Amino acid sequence: MLRDDFAGSGGRLLWAGLIWAVLAAAAACLILAGCGRGAVPAAQAVPAIPARAPSAAAAGVPAAAPGASALDWTIPQQFRGHVVAKRVRFFSRRLLALTFDDGPDPKLTPQILDLLAEHRAHATFFVLGETAQGRGDLLRRMAAEGHVVGLHGFTHVARVTPEQAAASLDRTAAVIEKATGRRPTVFRPPYGLTGSNLTRMARRHGYAVILWTISSADTRPIGAPVIARNVIHTPNPGDIVLMHDGSGHRATVEALPQILRELGQAGFQFVTVPELLRAWDEWRAPGQVAPETYRAGQERDGG
Questions:
Q1: Angstrom distance (rounded) from CA 53 to CA 128
Q2: Catalytic residue of the set 119, 147, 244, 249
Q3: Across 271-284, average pLDDT
Q4: Most buried pick, 19, 113, 199, 294, via CB within 10 A?
């Protein structure tokens, strides 16, 4: 009795298994047929994933520095009213601050801005108030594209009275603020004169007085290859590079693509002077002093 019951149950199980096998085979055939035609039900379609653009590093272009902002021209308190003449020793981040004096020039400065944009680079433009006052569009473009506009005096005059110095700074700052809506925070003295009344007044007003640690020597009658070599073969992390975008500096514009390309490929990022000062401040070890400054009255060529 038990054997017959078991046989009957086994027969039923066998038939059930055969039926399920036939159904599974039929389903598999249908699926394969559908795949062969490439038909995917609309409800199950997978959305296409857009192709990612190549990274800046893969394209040989340095990425913009972290935290770069067209609106942030602030500088750390320790640099306000002081002369910055040397880079921080042992600074490890591969940052460079390109600076341009004596502009803006209506022909050369836009070309420089185009090149900087192409390489995702930021820079600092130390403008002359007399030159900039009729070129607010260029100042606005500088600020909108992430650059910083600093003071270089109203005119490129080396010696002025204290009263003339105060007026020169105030007039130039007003030109910049009217065009950009931002108050400048950095100043470069004409010819790098740190003992002039203009520099003393700038320090009294709380501006950081910015010199340079690398000169492109582009005020001399040298060609673009020499200008590029002067910059490319000497940089260290944290250097400040002196160049010019005033009238007559065509060779500087011609040298800039090579400078941006080769230093970018070497891993350098191009930042504004305020960005560099903030990076120095963040990196500086406890107890380490700020970069050395030049004594009042000590002068440098250039600027």
A1: 40
A2: 244
A3: 94
A4: 199
Task: Please tell me the number of Cα atoms within 13 Å of 177 on its side-chain side.
Answer: 9
- The pLDDT assigned to 234 comes to 82
- Please provide residue 177's backbone torsions phi and psi, each rounded to the nearest 5 degrees: -65, -35
Q: Is 244 a catalytic residue?
A: yes
What domains can be seen in the chain, in order of their start residue?
77-283 (3.20.20.370)
Give the pLDDT confidence of 79-131 residue by residue, as tens digits: 999 999 999 989 999 999 999 999 999 999 999 999 999 999 999 999 999 99
pLDDT value for 286: 56
Give me the catalytic one of 101, 102, 105, 245. 101
Which residue in the block uniquely carries the two structure tokens 């062969």?
36
With contact defined as beta carbons under 8 Å apart, do 279 and 95 qualify?
A: yes
**E strands present in the chain:** 83-84, 95-101, 123-127, 148-151, 186-187, 208-210, 214-215, 239-244, 269-270
- Using one digit for the tens of pLDDT, what is the confidence trace for 199-252? 999 999 999 999 999 999 999 999 999 999 999 998 999 999 999 999 999 999
- Residues 211, 213: Cα–Cα separation, whole Å: 7
d(CA 208, CA 288): 19
∠ CA 227-117-185, nearest 5°, is: 80
